[in-house]
What does this fold into?
Amino acid sequence: MRVTLTVNGEVRSADVEPRTLLAYLLRDEFRLTGTHVGCDTTSCGACTVLLNGVPVKSCTVLAVQADGGEVMTVEGLEQDGQLHPLQEGFWESHGLQCGFCTPGMLMTAYALLREVPDPDEETIRRAISGNLCRCTGYQNIVKAIRYAAERLSAAGAVAGEVK
Amino acid sequence: MFPAPFEYLAVRSVEEAIDALARHGYDAKVIAGGQSLLPMMKLRVAAPSVLVDLNRVEGLSGWQEDAQGLRIGATTRHAALERARPLAERYPLILATAPWIADPLVRNRGTMAGSLAHADPAADWGAAFLALRGQVEVQGPQGTRSIGADDFFVDIFTTSLAADEIITAVRLPRPVGHPEATYLKLERKVGDFAVVGVALNLEVDPEGRVAQAGIGLAAVGPKPLRAPQAEAALIGQRLSFNLAREVAALAAEAADPTSDQRGSAAFKRDMVRVFVQRGLESLRQRIEGRQPASA
It folds into this structure.
């Protein structure tokens, strides 16, 4: 089946089998390998992308279901060579070690900051409870998200506007 | 991991979906959120040859309140219910249960109707649906009908839906008194299926007596269970510590758990007792907080 979707602002098309999962369309067809496939069983959240603005596990959405939709992957965060404040936060606060969960964490956090620009620790921890990290113990991920929230509020913008 | 190959039908209307189901029978599966079905298809536990996707059918998403109660469209996501603050007053069990389902990412995609149709005995909505005396609106080639919660679940992963029927909405009756509700869940790790889940919904009259009681149990039987004797013991009563203890013991008797890697049958049954007592105690405090002290 032919699917056409907007990925990080760019219209992309591919021929896929109905059983192709969105994560594999992004990685294998569009070569956007920033989206990681971790558990492949709807548990770890490494494959999180925004589908029509909402964070979902792209290993558990069919590519054909995303047809006509808008997808944002981790590659869409950086703009004109500038890291997104979230990416900067993960760098500055050591929010990653092996980095495998990071793309999913970033996309979940991006959606969180758009909905709740100034989240407290509890809110952050709840928001990322579908994203597993096996290195950091989450402590620095929470700090990284707080860093981004502060940076964004200081810039007088919410994540969605900075994009 | 990939599902086995299937034919994909992105239907545009309920009629089109029913038509597809009527043609393909048990070879076809309806998909809404797909957060249970797709993992099962990837593990090849399920291998439908036709997938009928309801996501592009207009008018199936969202909830509406009317004089009879609440109507939740079939493709309404868990996350939409979790954020439905206007429901807090009349349907608090919805807001109490939703945040316990899987994790936020799954809740962005999964649906209540899909969860009910899937009929996993450990699902959180099943217990809440029973406690609230819900109904599903169903459409098939013969027209529409509605199925009450007590008649809906048949066995593990089995409901009374026919192969060519689709849930179009979940209906919950308007409460007869002031509702207080809670959902208690024991899970091995965050986002996991319930080891034990207990949904409690009490509707209280102006004198503080229980006018309607709902106790739904998750993961302690081949299907979500209701505890009718425990509920009956609450009717017409004011909650007290002793009554809660009595009701909790009755609810534990209604459980029908099996031993597995999540715990022994005896442990699960006892957790039902503990959760019902704990939950009723928290509801008692809320109810008394609203009543004049002399009552």
